[in-house]
Amino acid sequence: MIGGTGATIKQAAKMQSSLLQRRGAACRASSSSKCQVRTARSSRTAVCRAAASAPAQAAAAVDAAAFETFLLDTQKQILAEAEKLDGSGQKFVTDRWERPNDTGYGITCVLEGGDLLEKAAANISIIRGTLSAQRAQAMSSRGRSQIDPAGGQPYSAAALSLVFHAAHPLVPTLRADVRLFQVAGCSWFGGGCDLTPSYLFEDDAAEFHGYWKDVCDKYSPGLYAEHKAWCDKYFYIPARKEHRGIGGLFFDDLDAAGAAFDVQAYTEDVARGILPSWTAIAQRRRTQQFTEAQRNWQLLRRGRYLEFNLLYDRGVKFGLDGGRVESIMVSAPPLIAWKYNVVPEQGSDEERLVKVLQQPREWV
Fold first, then answer.
1. pLDDT (tens digit, 9 = 90+) per residue, 149-172?
2. Whole-angstrom distance, CA of residue 12 vs CA of residue 81
3. pLDDT of 46-57, one tens digit each?
């Protein structure tokens, strides 16, 4: 997010009535910067260069401390609501950890053995460090031109991540996160929320996607379609030629300097909606009877979940490059099964799910 001298982004947003005006204000943040406002990309690059040449103004651009406080408050609310929803009396175990040399901290919270929640994790990570060459190359390859592929630049990151694995095979796995990444005077937001069911209920899928479309429509009429497609593309397992779940939202590298909406407000709305988007579905399905065969199928599908995380997920790879392994692997399901060459019976509910995973659908 951007702002002129002595102004925060929220102040700037109130003062400006159009995206063009906001971009113009950003360009005036540094008289030495020759900013272009012809396209979102050129505007975004110019703003970052201006911020890099004026560290004091860059610090005012995004209030990282306020976003960190928001994440901490949201985590507390999610923990309280999840314990109540589970209803077993099980509590989240809280593990606060510190990174060496004042480079950040984390709060890993895990509930295991609940009635609804077989394993649930809701984690905070606040990180400051220096980009390794591997991380820098991965990020610059996605269009972040301000990042030196050789590495060595200082960065900071703040994230809330969540995964809920249900004990009931008819209740879908919920995964979500929101995050802020800052480097070279620039700030990017990312996040999303998606479902991974073992059994497909079309009304559940439509309800979940409808919830997120309503959130997106507050900011832009085309935002849901864009971030739904992004989610389908990201959560794909090439080796299996299928998607991990039925999708939801996914977004990354969103910079308010090039967006026609308030990216930080949108990211925070996603965080607030994580549990509400799933709760009614979980409550509806947890009361249904299930068979041992359905439970075994759930364990097989969890194998696919872990395959994606370990082979393809950028966040896991980023974390394993010097991160805290226990906090990264906490997203893994508690029990998993693999069997050789499993092919669902033709016409079965299991086959119906796989067909949708092979070819994502539009739900709303």
1. 777 778 889 999 999 999 999 999
2. 35
3. 445 444 333 333
One-letter identity of residue 21: Q
Structural domains present in the chain: 9-61 (no CATH), 64-358 (3.40.1500.10)
Q: Confidence class of residue 187 from pLDDT cuts 50, 70 and 90?
A: confident
Alpha helices by DSSP H, listed for the chain, are 9-15, 19-27, 40-53, 55-61, 64-86, 133-140, 202-217, 223-234, 263-273, 276-285, 292-311, 314-320, 325-329, 349-358
What is the C-alpha separation between 227 and 130, in angstroms, rounded? 30
Give dist(CA 177, CA 180) in Å, integer: 10
Whole-number Å distance between alpha carbons of 164 and 302: 12
Task: Using DSSP, state whether 130 is helix, strand or coil.
Answer: strand
Confidence category of residue 322, pLDDT binned at 50, 70, 90:
low
β strands within 99-197, DSSP E:
104-112, 117-130, 154-166, 173-183, 186-196
pLDDT at 19 over 50: no
d(C-alpha 3, C-alpha 153), whole Å:
23
